[in-house]
Amino acid sequence: MDPVTETWFARRTWQEPAWTADELVAAKAGRRVSVVLPALDEEATVGPIVAAILPFTLGPDPLVDELVVVDSGSTDRTIEVATAAGARVVRRTDVVPDLEPCPGKGEVLWRALAATTGDVICYIDSDLVDFDPGFVPALIGPLLVEEGVHLVKGFYRRPLRLETSEVTGKFDNGGGGRVTELLVRPLIAALRPELAGVVQPLGGEYAGTRELLESLPFAAGYGVEIGLMLDTYATRGLDAIAQVNLGVRKHRNRSLLQLGVMARQILAAALSRCGVADAGGALTQFVQVGGEWLPDSTPVVVAERPPMREVVRRE
């Protein structure tokens, strides 16, 4: 890393975040905290995550002021399970209802801004297994106790879960994060080397100030995380970004074909923010059917939502 990045890494990285809930409650100073879980057909995992976070919402001076699951059109029992576990559930179609929803994770995260009231927003993916509630105080800590921080990224070891076994390497991060290592880290090195110190640029566990998040556009698909990081750097500078070690993160791993589609969306969001033209071509992959290799093309989702403060101003 170059000296600027090394200095940032030392200043804005917490390898062992040690804030207690009580300390952070005192540091809130009147600010509200919202925890948001985006969900699409996550009935198997969303309940335990909500139940683990719920104690932070209790008592006269809670750390978390609202816990919201924003549903992206689930067809299973996600809504019922999340409600029973204690979350407030909001359907994406009920938020900014005059706009037809776009498909994608980023769309739900964007609409969550209009569905919550927190000065600090903490996003947690709803497909995590063996969820550690300590993620929440770790992620919001820098936003409450450090001056100038507006976006906090979580980083972690990600075991590659194959059915009932876990594949881990002695010297690697556990086998997960394949799109990060094969696409995003080389892309950052080529186009935005100042961000080379970010351990998990695509991680789904992060927190930000409403002031920041409402000022940025959101990529509607899987490009949302890289887009927010690049835009934060462009508008607020490197020192506005921080990162905390969350330990281990387990979730449902995707196939290589699914990761290819995800990578294509991420690449589109990154290139547009780095001033590089994207031809907009569909991603063509090949599948074997009856012994033959046949092409299978997927259009890239490049929809972008404007800064939420512009939408709120229009309403």
Integer average pLDDT: 91
* Main sheet summary: 8 strands, mixed
Task: Tell me which oligomeric state these chains represent.
Answer: single chain
Structural class of the helix and strand makeup? alpha/beta
Strand order of the largest sheet: 1-12-7-10-5-2-3-4
Radius of gyration: 19 Å
Secondary-structure element order, as H and E? Answer: HEHEHEHEHEEHEEEHEHEHEEHEEEH
**Residue runs with pLDDT of under 50 for 5 or more positions:** 161-176
Distance between the termini: 45 Å
Number of strands: 16
Tell me what portion of residues adopts beta-strand conformation.
15-25%
Shape: globular
Work out the helix count: 11
**Share of helix, binned:** 25-40%
Question: Could you outline the blueprint of secondary structure elements for this entry?
Answer:
Elements: H1 3-12, E1 13-14, H2 21-27, E2 33-39, H3 46-53, E3 66-71, H4 78-85, E4 88-91, H5 105-115, E5 120-123, E6 128-129, H6 135-145, E7 151-157, E8 160-162, E9 165-167, H7 178-191, E10 206-209, H8 210-213, E11 218-219, H9 224-236, E12 241-248, E13 250-251, H10 256-273, E14 283-289, E15 292-298, E16 304-305, H11 308-314
Parallel strand pairs: 1-12, 2-3, 2-5, 3-4, 7-12
Antiparallel strand pairs: 5-10, 6-13, 7-10, 8-9, 11-16, 14-15
